[in-house]
Amino acid sequence: MMQWALALCALVAFSECIRVPMIKHKTARQKLQEKGLWEEYRKKFPYQPMVKFQQQQDGVQSMTNDADLSYYGVISLGTPPQSFSVVFDTGSSNLWVPSVYCNSAACNNHRQFNPDISSTYQGTQQSLRIRYGTGSMTGILGYDTLEVGGITVSNQIFGLSESEAQFMEHMEPDGILGLAFPSIASAGATPVFDNMMRQGLVSQDLFSVYLSGDSESGSVVLFGEIDSQFYTGSFTWVPLTSETYWQIELDSITINGNVACADGCQAIVDTGTSLIVGPSSDISNMNAWVGATTDQYGDALVSCENIENMPEVTFNINGHAFTLPASAYVFQRNSGCTAGFGNGGTQQLWILGDVFIRQFYTIFDRHNNMVAFASVA
């Protein structure tokens, strides 16, 4: 499968292989720490990573406030184009950006879409609501021309925010571009990648993601393309267990002979979550096994001087081992070092977020309903 995918993309027009560079910006945590506001912020907006994956009700998409997200790309909407930075989020399905209809503080310090200056905009009376752990985004739906990676998606439905959760004021991106399945899209809106497939804009019904490590540039999302420069070895293909999120079966997680997810568990591969998140009991054990101490906010504190002595963490998936060294799962900040494992509470679900994806170039295959991982080059 991998060989024909690479060959096919080389034969088609360049415009059908869509590459969107992503920049690694400062996180909300970093920006707030610089202003001396982080302690106040984290008390007011506690991290609730599993809110995003709770059962959808009344077609409302849930999201969470993640202060450590750092990868964003640029899109444009309208004619002439209006540019926005967005999170390319495989854990949600809607596209939305701030609009001139919004007076929230979060809108006032981000770029805002103005439908009145776009000759191709078509409005609707349909409302959109996306629920966050600490508030919500509300707005209306409209249609307009979307430009992504140099290609044009016609009549893309998207949300124009009228209010935004307070914590979004401190986030770098303007909005979110969801890359999960239509079944979880709020208001039944057609996701961007589904329109790319319908309009014949991608040579293959898949996209892939490479996240760079420490460098600010180099990260990319590739629509319809797999690029051999980003990985070594071969891919491990894993079937989805649900066509809602990009959900797979985890066999187990091992650390120095200790086992989490011992009987197998479900995991969502999510570019829109910064950490690896799991049930509280397993995460507590994992943090103890790597020598981390959890503080009152749930951060797993480790000694920056001890990173090279910390154990590897191995995720066993579909009979293959995917191993993270401590240098991959530890965040090194000016304020200290923390392990990248987040407490997901009582929900028996794991999230393989950016901590995992940085180590493994990932394919999201809609044609075969699979994901694939290969070690990054």
TrEMBL record:
GO terms for biological process: digestion; proteolysis. PROSITE patterns: ASP_PROTEASE, PEPTIDASE_A1. SUPFAM superfamilies: Acid proteases (SSF50630). The keyword Electron transport does not apply. It comes from the Eukaryota. One of its GO terms (molecular function) is aspartic-type endopeptidase activity. Keywords: Aspartyl protease, Digestion, Disulfide bond, Hydrolase, Protease, Signal. Residues 71-374 form the Peptidase A1 domain. Its EC number is 3.4.23.1. It is an enzyme of class 3 (hydrolase). The active site is at 89, 270. Pfam families: A1_Propeptide, Asp. Shows particularly broad specificity; although bonds involving phenylalanine and leucine are preferred, many others are also cleaved to some extent. This is pepsin A. It comes from Alosa alosa.
